[in-house]
Amino acid sequence: MKRHIFRAILAVALAVLLTSLVLIMGVLYGYFQDRITAELARSTAYIAHGLETQGMDYLTGRLPGDSRVTWVAADGTVLFDNREDPAGMENHAEREEIRDALLLGHGTAARYSDTLSQKTVYYALRLADGSVLRLADTQYSVWTLVLQAMQPVALVTLLAVCLALWLAGRVSRRLVEPINAIDPDAPGETAYEELAPLVGKLRSQNRRIQRQVEDLRRQREEFSAITENMSEGLLVIDRETRVLSYNTAALRLLGAEGPVKEAESVLALDREAGFRRCVEEALAGRRWEELLEREETCRRVLASPVEQDGDLTGAVLLVLDVTEKEQREALRREFTANVSHELKTPLTAILGTAEILENGMVRPEDIQHFAGNIHREAQRLIGLVNDIIKLSRLDEGGYAAQWETVDLYQQAGDVLDQLAPAADKKQVSMTLEGDCALVRGVPQIIEEIVYNLCDNAVAYNRQGGSVTVTVSAAAEGARIAVRDTGAGIPKEAQDRVFERFYRVDKSHSGGGTGLGLSIVKHGAAYLGARVELDSEPGRGSTFTVTFPPAGT
Q1: 227 touches 247 (CB < 8 A)
Q2: What is the pLDDT of residue 504?
Q3: Which class is 2-148 in CATH?
Q4: Which of 380, 386, 465, 541 gets the most CB atoms within 10 Å of its CB?
Q5: Where are the domains of the chain?
Q6: 469: closest CA among 548, 549, 545, 387?
Q7: 159-168 burial, b for 16+ CB within 10 Å, e for fewer?
Q8: Coil, strand or helix: which one is 292?
Q9: Average of per-residue pLDDT across 83-100
Q10: Superfamily of domain 230-321
């Protein structure tokens, strides 16, 4: 702005200077022309007086001044000229100044003289005898005056230009200084009344910008709070795959290290082909979905294009952790396959035995044996169905029974009484140790936990082994420990024994369904209890369940 003001002031100053020079030269030109005409008039009158008194002798003598003198008769014939031969000169009757002098007594004219080849001022005076005396003098043109005054004019012009430059710079600085002093962020009063509307506009604009910035900041904080508390990963990218916004869940699910760098491509966060395909399809305007599996994790990426006014501007990527869902789906498929297999075994036995009986292929004395097989497999089938129902209830929280205070020692004693026949058949001794220990829970679930632990201890024990059940009360809660003298569980299988239908050694299953420890695990989780396993191959196993204190 200062440069523009400086140029404007300088241009005005120079324009005024040039205009002044032109006007001055014009005035001088007019002034000199008037002076020349007046001088010619005086000289003409003086010479006319001499001519009238002395005649031609006066003209041939020494004339005053250096003007050209011409004497013209009334008919235009040149009688005398001090510069040229009168005989060779044309008739002057039609000359303007001669014609005016003959009519008016005197006349003036200014024109280029063909004889002198320059602009000349003429003055003519009519004499008493009717002839005309004319004097001519050279008139200086404007350019002649300029050239003659070139040096002083150039000096004055140079001084004027320097002064104009200095004044233009000084004035422009002083003009711009109050404008530069205006603070756009906090405009105060201005020295120029003309700038008051601008200052007011700046104040209003600042208030509006502050409100907008505050709204944007609040919206950004709300958006950040929402996205940062999402378990799903969120990524917003532009058409060049640069990350515009993201949350920490996205970095965690994609396995990215550290924050996203400025203008970093989203493809640098995950280089899997499926992830790249999601990005490419979304930026091509198509919604896409991919399942990414890595080690023990499983993530689902949903990519959607973002359009604005019909133009594709970027994409939004949503990353979901579906590991648990996929695991549950895998467990469901495995559970369904295992249930089908476990149900098929007793049903096949029952069906085969029934077909033998139906076809009369059994001797009368063997009917009781085959009927016993049917009864045993049917009981196994019923037990399997009951265990599946129990697990389903525990999974879905379907137990509607009231919580009660249960004596864990008494409950263990009742269970050992129920298992006494099976233990005697296998010659396994059972011992109950400890004292009264109260727990809060659903009696049916507590009974299932204790029963399945003790039943497994008997079923997977060696012939002539022992089972020791210890009940104790401690500050952290009641505890029951079931120790057997069986074959033990290998270290690598200890994390899997609580899976449904899993057996360490299927050849020594003891006729169980493979759901006992699953019921124990889910029942303990339902009651808030903790299950621990301590086992070594060849030295037996100890299962310990610690219940929360009865008062909690």
Answers
A1: yes
A2: 60
A3: alpha beta
A4: 541
A5: 2-148, 230-321, 326-390, 399-546
A6: 545
A7: ebeeebeeeb
A8: strand
A9: 87
A10: PAS domain (3.30.450.20)
Helices marked H in 196-270 — which ranges? 196-228, 248-254
Residues with Cβ within 8 Å of residue 142, at least 6 apart in sequence:
25, 26, 29
Q: Which two tokens stand for residue 40?
A: 């010619």
Q: How far apart are CA 501 and CA 516, in angstroms?
A: 9
CA diameter of the chain? 197
CATH class given for the domain over 399-546: alpha beta
- What SS3 class is residue 119? strand
CA distance 179 to 1: 10
Q: What is the mean pLDDT of the chain?
A: 79
Query: What does 386-441 look like in DSSP terms, one character per residue?
Result: HHHHHHHHHHHT---PPPEEEEHHHHHHHHHHHHHHHHHHTT-EEEEEE---EEEE
User: Cα–Cα distance between 264 and 257 in angstroms, integer?
Assistant: 13
Average pLDDT value for residue range 353-360: 76
The confidence score (pLDDT) of residue 117 equals 46
Tokens representing 264 are: 């970093």
CA distance linking residue 298 with residue 292, whole number of Å: 6
Q: What residues have CB less than 8 Å from 190, skipping those under 6 apart?
A: 178, 179, 182, 196, 198, 199
Task: Answer yes or no: same fold for 2-148 and 230-321.
Answer: yes
Kindly indicate the confidence band of residue 507, based on its pLDDT and cuts at 50, 70 and 90: very low
- Sign of the Cα pseudo-torsion (154, 157, 161, 162, in order): positive
Torsion sign, CA atoms 12, 17, 19, 20: positive
Give pLDDT, residue 471: 93
DSSP string, 128-153: TTS-EEEEEEEPPPHHHHHHHTHHHH
Nearest-angstrom CA–CA distance, 509 and 496: 15
Q: Which CATH class is domain 326-390?
A: mainly alpha
Can you say whether residue 528 is alpha, beta or left, with left for phi > 0 and alpha for psi between -120 and 50 degrees?
Answer: left
* Distance between CA atoms of residues 330 and 297, nearest Å: 13
Q: Contact 415/496 with Cβ under 8 angstroms?
A: no
pLDDT of 262-290, one tens digit each? 778 888 888 888 889 999 999 999 999 98
Task: Find the angle CA(294)-CA(296)-CA(297) to the nearest 5 degrees.
Answer: 60
